[in-house]
Each structure stands twice: as C-alpha cells, then as structure tokens.
Amino acid sequence: MVDNNNWRPTPPGGVGGGGGGTEAGLHGGDWRSQLLPESRERIVNRIMETLKRHLPVSGPEGLQELKKIAVRFEEKIYTAATSQSDYLRKISLKMLTMETKSQNTIPNALPSNSAGNSTKDAGTT
C-alpha cells in the first residue's frame, strides 16, 4: 500500500507536467492565431490613449509618431508573451506602471518648481 501511495503522486506529476508542457506548447502558438486583428488594434488604441495622457503630442506628426510607438510596443509584447493572458497582463502592467510613474512625477515636479521659484524670489529680493 505504501508503494501505491508513493506511485500515485508520480503519474499525475509526470503526466500533468509532460501533458501540460505539451499543451502549453500547443496553446502557446495557438493563442496568437485566435487573437483577432481587431482586438490587437483596440489594444494599440488603448496604449495610444495612455501615451497621449503622459506625453506631449503636437499635430498629426506627433500622433503618427505616437501610433508607431504604440504599435512597436504591442508587437514586442505580442511576440514575447507565452499566452493571451500573459500578453494582456504584460500590457496592463506596463500601462499601470506608466500611470503610477506619471502620478508620482507630476506632484513631485510641481512643488520643486514652486519651491525653486520662491527660493529664487527670496534670493533676488
């Protein structure tokens, strides 16, 4: 009976690990073919919206450049991702990081500018 208990966990680990690895390999390539181009375009547009909020853009040239950045970023993540959930997680994490850094940068920048101005004014008076 002890042998059965020792033997029992091994097959699920062996079968699950091997089968899971094979499945992951099959699904790894599969998920890209199942992701519609419209979905990728929507993701690129969301990336653009995020970039627009955090980067200065002027005119159609600026928007075109922003679009190129968003497309390159999406393609890089799309190529590196191991699954659709990994793809979405990586993009979400990057967008969240951008939002967080931007929120932390703006408040820090404003007081230092106003402090700089008040110091400058105090020195010239």
How would you summarize the topology of this molecule?
Layout: H1 2-7, H2 10-34, H3 37-54, H4 59-80, H5 84-124
Question: What key attributes describe this structure?
Answer:
125 residues; mainly alpha; 0% strand
Q: How would a textbook summarize the main sheet? A: none
User: Proportion of β residues?
Assistant: under 5%
Radius of gyration: 25 Å
**Helical residue percent band:** over 70%
Distance between the termini: 92 Å
How many extended strands? 0
- Uncertain ranges: 4-28, 108-120
Principal-axis shape: flat
The string of secondary-structure elements, in order, is HHHHH
In DSSP terms (H or I, runs of 4 or more residues), the helix count works out at 5
Walkthrough of the structure:
It is a single chain. With 125 residues, this protein is mainly alpha-helical. It is built from 5 helices and no strands. It has helices at 2-7, 10-34, 37-54, 59-80, 84-124. The longest helix has 41 residues, at 84-124.
